[in-house]
Specification:
Layout: E1 3-7, E2 10-15, E3 18-23, E4 26-30, E5 35-40, E6 50-54, E7 62-66, E8 73-78, E9 83-88, E10 97-103, E11 113-122, E12 127-128, E13 133-137, E14 142-148, E15 157-161, E16 167-169, E17 181-185, E18 190-195, E19 204-210, E20 213-222, H1 238-241
Parallel strand pairs: 4-11, 13-20
Antiparallel strand pairs: 1-2, 2-3, 5-9, 6-7, 6-10, 8-9, 10-11, 12-14, 14-18, 15-16, 15-19, 17-18, 19-20
C-alpha cells in the first residue's frame, strides 16, 4: 500500500518503506493530439516491469499498459536512464485524471513502487510547447519557448529538470541558480529558456512550468561537432611549373 501526503504543493509517497519527495505534477495536454510524458524510477528497479495505471487511488487504479505493449498508451523503457516514457496518439477531455507511473516489485505482500501525476486535457492548454523535443551539441546554446494563455500571464514561470525536480525561476537573481540557464518572459504569451554551454549531462527531460501546469520537453545533447580543417596550399611558381 502507498500512503500519500500533500504538503504545500509537494507530493510525498511512501512505497515499501522508502519515502521520496517530488513535485506535484499537473501535465497540460492538448485534446486530440499525440503526446509523451517521462516516468522516473529508482535504478535498482531497471529490470522490473513498468506500467501505467489510471485512477484517483493507488489501491484501486486500473492498469492501462505495460512496457512493450501497444494500444492507446504505449510504454518504452530506458533502463540506462532509469526512465520510461508513456506515449499516446489521442486523448480527450474526459481522459483528464490521475495517472500512476509504476514499477512492478513482485513478491507476496511487497507493494509496487509508483507515484502519480495529473493529466489536464484541454482544447486550449494553459501551458504548451510547439516542439517537445530539442537538441544541441556540447558547448553550444539551445533555447526553448514555452507558451501560456492569458490566464497564466501573472503566474510563476519556471524551467525544471524532471529527474531531480531542480527548478530555475524567472526574475530570480540569487547565486543559487545556474548562470548558464536564463529565463526571459515577454509578459504576454510566452517565456524563453536559454541554456548556454551545453554539457552531455544536460540531456534529459525538463518541464516548462507556469503556475500549477507543466509541459514536458526532452533535451538531447550530442557530442561536439567535428572540426573540419581545410588544407592550405602555397601558390605555385609559374616558372617552376614549367
Amino acid at each position: 500500500m502507498i500512503y500519500l501526503l500533500i504538503l504545500s504543493g509537494i507530493l510525498l509517497y511512501i512505497s515499501g518503506g522508502a519515502r521520496v519527495n517530488t513535485l506535484k505534477l499537473n501535465i497540460a495536454v492538448k485534446s486530440g493530439s499525440s503526446g509523451i510524458i517521462p516516468c522516473v524510477y529508482d535504478k535498482q528497479h531497471k529490470e522490473n516491469r513498468k506500467y501505467l495505471c489510471w485512477g484517483t487511488y493507488w489501491s484501486s487504479c486500473r492498469i492501462l499498459a505495460y512496457a512493450g505493449e501497444t494500444g492507446k498508451f504505449s510504454i518504452t523503457d530506458y533502463p540506462v536512464q532509469s526512465i520510461f516514457t508513456v506515449r499516446w496518439d489521442k486523448l480527450e477531455i474526459s481522459d483528464s485524471g490521475y495517472y500512476w507511473c509504476a514499477v512492478e516489485i513482485g513478491g507476496y505482500g511487497t507493494p509496487d513502487a509508483g507515484y502519480y501525476l495529473y493529466l489536464t486535457v484541454q482544447s486550449a492548454p494553459g501551458v504548451y510547447v510547439k516542439n517537445s523535443s530539442v537538441s544541441g551539441h556540447e558547448g553550444d546554446n539551445v533555447s526553448v519557448q514555452c507558451f501560456y494563455t492569458s490566464g497564466y500571464k501573472d503566474k510563476l514561470k519556471q524551467w525544471c529538470r524532471y529527474k531531480d525536480k531542480s527548478c530555475y525561476t524567472e526574475k530570480r537573481t540569487d547565486t543559487s541558480q545556474n548562470p548558464s540557464v536564463q529565463i526571459s518572459d515577454d509578459g504576454r504569451s510566452s517565456f524563453t529558456v536559454l541554456m548556454t554551454g551545453l554539457r552531455l549531462s544536460d540531456s534529459g527531460w525538463y518541464l516548462c512550468s507556469v503556475g500549477d501546469l507543466q509541459a514536458p520537453v526532452q533535451l538531447t545533447v550530442n557530442e561536439p561537432k567535428p572540426v573540419t580543417h581545410i588544407p592550405t596550399t602555397t601558390p605555385s611558381d609559374p616558372e617552376t611549373d614549367k
